[in-house]
């Protein structure tokens, strides 16, 4: 079975991590959970959103200052 193309991003969301999306090459990044359902749907089902969009997803890295360990 082929792994889901966004498995790492979906796993990060399930683990409570922040996933960011960038809508254009020069644009700002936004938390996925603050965006429209179309963005979340594109993570769950990548073929549901036309791929002509420049949408770049990444998991926000936690810094030492953010860590509460």
Short structural summary:
Strands 2-1-3 form a three-stranded antiparallel β-sheet.
Describe what this molecule looks like in 3D.
The chain is an alpha+beta fold and 69 residues long. Helix content is 23%, strand content 16%. The chain has helices at 7-14, 37-44, and strands spanning 19-22, 29-31, 56-59. A 3-stranded antiparallel sheet has the order 2-1-3. The model has no long low-confidence stretch (mean pLDDT 85).
Secondary structure tally, helices: 2
Are there runs of 5+ residues with pLDDT below 50, and where? none
User: Helix share of residues?
Assistant: 10-25%
Give me the secondary-structure category.
Answer: alpha+beta
- Mean of residue pLDDT values: 85
Shape: globular
Number of strands: 3
Biggest sheet strand line-up:
2-1-3
Q: Rg, please?
A: 13 Å
Proportion of β residues? 15-25%
Order of helices and strands: HEEHE
Largest sheet: 3 strands, antiparallel
End-to-end C-alpha gap: 37 Å
């Amino acid at each position: 079975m082929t792994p889901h193309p966004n498995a790492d991003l979906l796993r990060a969301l399930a683990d409570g991590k922040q996933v960011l999306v960038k809508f254009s090459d020069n644009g700002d990044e936004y938390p996925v959970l603050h965006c429209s359902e179309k963005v979340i749907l594109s993570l769950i089902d990548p073929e549901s959103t036309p791929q002509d969009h420049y949408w770049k997803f990444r998991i926000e890295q936690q810094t030492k200052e953010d860590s509460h360990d």
